[in-house]
Amino acid sequence: MLALEYFNRTDFGQLISWIDSPAFLLHWGGPKFDYPVDELQLEKYIKDSNNSNSENLIYKVVSIETGKVIGHISLGEIDRKNKSAKIGKVLIGDKDVRGKGIGQRMIKEILRVAFDELNLHRVNLVVLETNASAIECYKRVGFVEEGRMRDARKKDDKYYSLIEMSILENEYYASKT
What we know:
Order of helices and strands: EHHHEEEHEHEEH
Strand content: 35-45%
Distance between the termini: 19 Å
Structural class: alpha+beta
Radius of gyration: 16 Å
Number of helices: 6
């Protein structure tokens, strides 16, 4: 079991330690961050987040069994009028728990927040085409591929495409039965 708790300044050091390469940063943060990630970048990231009217809810992921912080996830671009949001910054930082279904549990928990607490209709995400394990995780939870943004990210003189995926509220509730 895991819990989502608001990410704050006291969590900066741990997150920075997990992002140990430019390649890892590209998977986690996309173009919004520069390597190495520092406290100033994270201050901008959390500004105006985690309150009742925020467009961004940013969480650390805590193992209920151990009390240890094992990951990070956000629900951003929250549009209450159109009832939509975007999952981002998905990270299982603790290498000892990778490959054990934690990613699926994290996504299910953030979807619970989106659909059960915020009463949203649609949640989407974007994933780098080379991140096969994440794509498979999202599909298992019920996300559907909507499209591809060709050559949208550049790293070391090579371009990579992004895959856009989404899940609607009726699909979410159908998957829970």
